[in-house]
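Sorry to interrupt, but I need a hand with the structure work. Can you supply me with one protein entry, sequence and fold together? No commentary is needed, just the two lines. Leave the record below and I will have a look.
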Amino acid sequence: MAEKQINPVLKQALELGPTILFFVIYMWIKDDTFHIGGTAYSGFIVAALAMIPILLASIAALWLLSGKLSRMQIFTGLAVLFFGALTAWFNDERFFKMKTTLVYGSFAVILGFGLLRGRSYLQFILSEALPMQPQGWMILSRRLTLAFAALAVANEVIWRTQSTELWVKLETFAFPIALFLFLMLQIGALSRYVIEPETPPEDGPPRR
């Protein structure tokens, strides 16, 4: 399927919507217990399970509207599906919380593996959206590898030592905002490596 243009506001809504809805559902039912098939499930687990079809529907909508899915979207969707299934099967919310560690940790490992080979896999993914010199991509890849590793460690510490409600709030808002601000700061700091688009020369005066 050929890639198509999609309204950027709609794209952001589809990408961020599942996480926001998970937060809303959790805050609504966090103190409730649900009995399904003779098993008692906490509000957190029900909210986590509700997120799975919401996320899959969002990914499907993005694919239908844009004709393309990023590797990050596919990987995140599979991670949510896998850990959501484990959460339901074992009736243990820890599996869903580990999902964030796996996602961030995997990104750190993938980027780090590329750096060991002297390559920036980040450039392979984002070069069309952000033209930049290879040196800039290598610097950004090194810094983003460390950022993903730090987020993975932070998630492990937080879910193991803090309340579920605090983890949900940090997972929904703090982690994405921190990553977004980090990227904006890095792009600004590496602006000298950004390749500006060439402007066509102006036409001279008409010849007589």
Observations:
- The helical segments are 8-29, 43-66, 71-90, 94-116, 121-126, 134-161, 164-189.
- The longest strand covers residues 33-36.
- The mean pLDDT is 88.
